Amino acid sequence: MNYTTLGTSGLKVSSLCFGAMGLGKSWNWGADRETSFKLLETFADAGGNFIDTANIYTDGESEKIIGEFLKTERDHFVIATKYTLADSRTGIKAAIEEGKGNVNGTGNNRKNMLRSLQQSLKRLKTDYIDVFYLHIWDHMTPVEEVMRGLDDLVSRGLVHYIAISDTPAWVVSRAQMLAELRGWAQFVALQVEYSLLQRTPERELIPMARELGLTVTPWAPLAGGALTGKYLHGEKGRLPDNSRRLSPEAQTIIREVIKVAESYGVPPSQVALRWTMQQDFKCIPIVGTTKVTQLEENLNALHLTLDQKHIDLLNEVSSIELGFPGSFFREEGVKQSVYGGFFEKIEHPNLPE
After folding, report:
1. This prediction's pTM
2. pLDDT grade, residue 337 (50/70/90)?
């Protein structure tokens, strides 16, 4: 296992993150307690120290299992959890279905932020959270309220670092600048869906992360298992037949991943994971699984290095339309007609190719 710092912080985390959404059986799928412990042990034995969960995962059971597992090794691990969505039967879900409940039990508001954190601390059996994510933007709470609230948690020592997930780039940029100007805690990581089958974050989110020094922590780097190739052979899983991850375009990409994997003599999953890890920005994929054999297979991606020709091949087959202004910058003649040849005279990693 290699290690890197998270964002612009000094926090050292493993180059793969363990995704704990499948720990527990509360959602009628996932790993039981015994298997969950084996998964965490396998990850730890490989040198992994970065674990990602959330208050909502398996209705809080994921956090409880992690808390039981880490009670004697807490300082060794970096625990990331999240707030925003309703955990268990609290919040809007209960209010709608039962005509009662805490309407402030969800959302980005400060009240729910503290309530959710306190519950996560109890379930995780810990006094602090290493990385606390805002889970998803609610398009309701003021940015100032969010950032001041998160900074207070850091000041109190309840949270060490803050991060954000599933939020528009303009919101993250505004929040980060606000925190910088006011001397508040700033985000160190950005969690988004990103894989060979989901490259749309390259339009705005990833360029923003690169510019702001945020580590990208992709969820679903294997696209729900689609990039393993198992669905091409008729194997059933949690993806419905009409999933975009199984579209004809997706299948073309998956077959190319399989060909590249065969040239290295490794499973397709390792190629798909390694592709995310060899991008030109700091990227730590989240590997979530409910089987020890699958986790071991994913961990072996650490020993693989893709040749540039294969990266270029995968980039080409999975390419997306950047839209405006990204595509405009790449149009033929733009460099000369608009910039007067300026791009030809200077090298900079953020300039359009």
Report:
1. 0.92
2. low
